[in-house]
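A.,

Following up on our hallway conversation. Structure tokens first:
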């Protein structure tokens, strides 16, 4: 079964400028397969790799983490009733415009965003 690649819908100039600022020397690219994985456990594994805590040379003040790629984000699992009871909320800036979307709706719209929001929430609060 072939999977289709998602296209990048952001500003390419900003994305490339951000990549140029990253020192890619010494970084490894880690690939995670999300098929059948529980969302929280996968996010904590990715957060450990991004922080560099899996390396023997880890120090809290240095950024030694590796880059991560997640495959099959649409096949990630959640436990319990999170699919219907978990909501992502954001404010548009206008009065009374607090928007919310359930995890199920977010998974149908953009499943990669679910993992993008879960990983930083696994970091220590000083990093975010």
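Then the amino acids I'd put at each of the 128 positions:
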């Amino acid at each position: 079964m072939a999977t289709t690649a998602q296209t990048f819908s952001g500003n390419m100039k900003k994305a490339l400028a951000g990549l140029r600022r990253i020192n890619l020397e010494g970084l490894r690219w880690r690939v995670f397969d999300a098929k059948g994985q529980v969302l929280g456990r996968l996010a904590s594994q990715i957060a450990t790799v991004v922080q560099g805590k899996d390396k023997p040379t880890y120090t809290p003040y240095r950024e030694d983490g590796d880059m991560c790629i997640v495959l099959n984000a649409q096949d990630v699992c959640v436990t319990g009733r999170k699919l219907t009871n978990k909501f992502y909320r954001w404010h548009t800036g206008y009065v009374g415009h607090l928007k919310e979307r359930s995890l199920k709706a977010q998974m149908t719209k953009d499943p990669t965003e679910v993992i993008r929001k879960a990983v930083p929430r696994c970091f220590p609060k000083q990093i975010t």
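The mean pLDDT is 87. Curious whether your intuition agrees with the design.

B.
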